[in-house]
From TrEMBL:
It comes from Methanolobus profundi. PROSITE patterns: AA_TRNA_LIGASE_II. Binds 1 zinc ion per subunit. Residues 215-514 form the Aminoacyl-transfer RNA synthetases class-II family profile domain. Homodimer. This is Threonine--tRNA ligase. Zn(2+) binds at residues 307, 359, 483. Its cofactor is Zn(2+). The lineage of its organism: Archaea, Methanobacteriati, Methanobacteriota, Stenosarchaea group, Methanomicrobia. The gene is thrS. One of its GO terms (molecular function) is zinc ion binding. Belongs to the class-II aminoacyl-tRNA synthetase family. Archaea-specific ThrRS editing domain subfamily. CDD domains: ThrRS_anticodon. Its EC number is 6.1.1.3. HAMAP family: Thr_tRNA_synth. GO terms for biological process: threonyl-tRNA aminoacylation.
Amino acid sequence: MQLLLIHSDYIEYEVKKSTPVAEKIEDSFKQGRLEEALTAFIAVEKVDEANVEGAISKAVDEIKSVATQVKAENIMVYPYAHLSSDLSSPKAGVAVLKGVEAALSGEFTVKRAPFGWYKAFKISCKGHPLSELSRSIVPDEASVENTPVCGEVVKEEVVSEALKAEDTAKSYWHVLTPDGVLHDATTFDFTGHDNLGKFVDYEISKKRAVEKAPPHVELMRRLELADYEPGSDSGNMRYYPKGRLMKSLLENYVLEETSKMDAMEVETPLMYDMNHPTLKKYLDRFPARQYSIESDKRQMFLRFAACFGQFLMNHDMTISYKNLPLKMVEMTRYSFRKEQRGELVGLRRLRAFTMPDMHSLCADMQQAIDQFDQQYNMCISVLDKVGIKVDDFEVAIRFTRDFYNENKDFITNLAKTVNKPVLIEMWDTRFFYFVLKFEFNFVDALAKASALSTVQIDVENAERYDINYIDSSGNANRPVILHCSPSGAIERCIYGLLEKEAMKAEEGGVPMLPLWLSPTQVRVIPIAEAHMDYAIKVADQLNCRVDIDDREDTVGKKIREAGREWIPYVVVVGDSEVEKGTINVTIRAESEPKKPVKVEMTPEELNARIASETEGMPYKGLCLAKMISQRPKFL
């Protein structure tokens, strides 16, 4: 359950329209007002269904505690689904809300807003330090004897031994500076490295749950890229045409970059036998939670990476030392991880995601280290072209103490390459299948970190999967394996871009997506109907994703809407442009808030500019109708 508690001068609401899950209410319930009230905005979640009474009890305790602190005698219980992406069934939601209302009524004056109705509300927050508080509540697990009030008892989650080890592993945290000095992470001076400080705090504290939606959630909806899918499991999203276009371009780009490194693209199954002797052992060595399903009385799991399929393929191959390093890559549409509910939000952390997964078979550790270095630099280049620069992410390098002692100069060079301090996590004992791993981590507006690119040196799975190569003497040898995701999850790249631009806007900048990823690169706006033919002519001359705003709105409104859509180039054409054969172009990348940069040029000059900015990057045509008036609204 998610709670948002606001101490207010007053709260009032009025119902406007019912939804398909609206509870039946009397007319007197259609509006309400409370003075001097503590308003409890509540989102009941799926996890609450296993123990509804426990959820009610914990929520009541929290609300009472805050009400006592702020000396509130009146409480408004207000259902607010927007606090969570993992909502319970309507039946459970109503049961919890009614239970909270009943439990509080003995000590407070309580009103409850109806469930499942669109409502208008006004609230006046008092503004003192305790007037806005958020809480995340997870009820205790219901016992076997206690049947949940709503929902079904969930089967016990499959948790790998690696995840259990991750919880118990003793980590030594350091900050490595480019001069090769290891500093204690808890005493390091983060002046000038604020983001690194946030990242270190996030990693050491392990506070993964989010208490409110980060900015990209509103942006992914407003820009009509993606949204939650209520008809699926949490963390499984729907992508609108613009979002699908962005994903496709990113997928193509990453595959092109791995192809330049001689990686062969393959495709492997989505599900595997959980009791396959080799896979069962691997499951326990990978720190991820699995989706499990039953098929023909066999327990299966949905893949959380492309490792299994590629390793099983490697096992069946005949590989010579001349083939090494041998690289295979798959764009997994999708990989599945049963991430915990409180961590799921927007595109930041998903249960179904698209992951480019490349594996390299190396002859020995030295070749693996050489490849690791090459792929480290490739990942920097990939994120740079995506629009996430070195200054936008923080580096974490994780290894065993023995590996560090044997490779100090190599590890130090990784920090030198990015020319800034990096976070180090060191273990005395190897808990996982790798001895070295790095991630590039994006720190968002809520100071939560998310891993993007990663490479790992795997010293276990060649043995586990019986993967061999034949050396120059005809003997069979085990390769060392590298795991690499050049960009991390494709969805997370979009999340990083949206969060980065949201923070830029907060600081007074003009947000925009990289030109090659912008769903519309140029929008043409005719001043009047008389200029429509010229607008169409201009659009036909432009070699990019160009659309035309042909709606019957004012030019000012069209320009403002183009701004809200982050259109990189906005072309306005009127009498002067028709007469001179030119276009008036607003260049978003050079503009400031309320100070647009406008340049007169020809369509050919704009073409040249766009070609220069997008050189070498993938291209696809418009994903929606060219005429704005012909497009549906997705939200």
